Amino acid sequence: MDEVEVVVAHAERATLRVGDVFLKVDADRARLEAEVEAMSLAPVPTPEVLWCRPPVLALAALPGTTLGRLGGPSTGSPAAWAAAGAAIRRLHDAPLPPRPGQAGRDVVALAAELDEECEVLVANGVLPADLVARNRRVAEAALRPWTAAFTHGDLQIAHVFVDGDEVTGIIDWSEAGRGDALHDLATFTLGHEEHLDDVLTGYGKDVDLDVIRAWWSLRSLLIVRWLGEHGFDPFAPGCEVDVLRSRM
């Protein structure tokens, strides 16, 4: 009998693997339905939807392996990273989906959220004040007008599967929708800055590197406290706090 593997679990949702089937449990029915819709519209490889009976979504496993994970080494070749960049570009060039996504939050509201989070990080002694202040200044470049694109919204490298130099699939579309394309590129290269040039080679379009770096700081500042409260370690080597330190 196949064992049940807990892939990820926290208060909002959980993903289990049983053999070649992934079971996503999400108490937010709308978010689950949005994920299925996004996968049906995305012009890139996605997992086969076996069935969806909220609060559970069953997906077939993808061939290949992930490009790596935040805080760990990359297992992908430069060509694989470039192939991922090309896939991301296809997504961003696709017709806009009907829903706003995680990468499409209102700039004014995002700035207010960032300022509030920075105050809490310093007041509670989570991070040093100079580290927070420096990264808040860097993050400012991301708070600008942008042209909406079809975005994944949570494009971590652990969500991209490759077989050799070919992208075999992208998973976890619950945050997908209309958003800032550079948010996707920044999330994908977070903690793996050495592969940014490979990704942009495949992406095939000039981008503002200052905005990508700004998103590295912005995303890390917003998520450090949440990660700690949900059983993850943003202070682990190569993870979010190291990303913030690299901006100093």
UniProtKB/TrEMBL annotation:
Name the UniProt record assigns to this protein: Aminoglycoside phosphotransferase domain-containing protein
Organism: Streptomyces griseorubiginosus
Superkingdom of source: Bacteria
InterPro entries registered for this protein in UniProt: AGP_Transferase (IPR051678), Aminoglycoside_PTrfase (IPR002575), Kinase-like_dom_sf (IPR011009)
SUPFAM superfamilies: Protein kinase-like (PK-like) (SSF56112)
Residue ranges constituting the Aminoglycoside phosphotransferase domain according to the UniProt record: 19-203
